[in-house]
């Protein structure tokens, strides 16, 4: 693992609520992104083994002109900074989860939150699939590995993973998984897929850079 991620682990360790005597051998930073009302706060809260930090505020009349609540009419709050949680995947491996705000006007926070991240989960709602396009573009352009997790809302039409991948025009190999953001086991499976995929991507890039260096020697 590069020093960038080790430094990130040290940083997030200082923000977590470690129990006395507990030591984490490896802590990885994961972003949870996606459109407004897609379930980011729900996912972080469902999987976190500590009380999640939330920065939610009530939706205001002033925000009605800029926040599209179509399809999520019952939503009354919104994340204005970030969500934070922690989950232990196995002994010696913990993930620190940073949920990003979904509205356009808070995207200036994304660059700060993405520093040192191993990868990201992009939550998608098939009723508002276009809302996750900005997150997909953001991570693709910055070469940050990500998986698309389709949050299967009750009553929403179910699509196959390949159909979602095609609709989002994802790069070949980018994983698409179906999930229920309310369910801890489902959310944990998404995070495991994310870590596995990011590990493969970073290993491939490292081998590619080593090969290029050897070729130019």
UniProtKB/TrEMBL annotation:
Keyword Nucleotide-binding in annotation: yes
Protein's recorded name: ATP/GTP-binding protein
Gene3D superfamilies in alphabetical order: P-loop containing nucleotide triphosphate hydrolases
Pfam families xrefs: ATP_bind_1
UniProt record similarity statement: Belongs to the GPN-loop GTPase family.
Top-level lineage group: Bacteria
Assigned keywords, A-Z: GTP-binding, Hydrolase, Nucleotide-binding
Species, as recorded: Streptomyces silvae
């Amino acid at each position: 693992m590069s020093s960038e991620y080790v430094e990130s682990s040290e940083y997030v360790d200082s923000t977590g609520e470690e129990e006395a005597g507990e030591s984490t051998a490896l802590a990885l930073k994961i972003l949870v992104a996606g459109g407004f009302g897609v379930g980011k706060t729900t996912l972080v809260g469902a999987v976190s083994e500590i009380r999640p930090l939330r920065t939610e505020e009530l939706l205001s009349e002033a925000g009605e002109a800029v926040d599209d609540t179509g399809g999520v009419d019952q939503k009354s709050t919104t994340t204005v900074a970030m969500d934070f949680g922690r989950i232990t995947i196995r002994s010696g491996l913990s993930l620190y989860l940073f949920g990003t705000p979904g509205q356009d006007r808070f995207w200036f926070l994304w660059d700060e939150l993405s520093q040192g991240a191993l990868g990201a989960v992009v939550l998608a709602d098939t009723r508002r699939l276009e809302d996750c396009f900005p997150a997909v573009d953001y991570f693709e352009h910055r070469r940050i590995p990500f998986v698309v997790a389709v949050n299967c809302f009750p009553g929403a039409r179910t699509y196959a993973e390949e159909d979602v991948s095609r609709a989002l025009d994802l790069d070949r190999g980018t994983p698409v998984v179906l999930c229920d953001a309310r369910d801890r086991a489902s959310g944990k499976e998404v995070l495991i897929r994310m870590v596995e995929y990011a590990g493969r991507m970073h290993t491939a890039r490292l081998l590619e850079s080593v090969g290029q260096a050897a070729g130019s020697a």
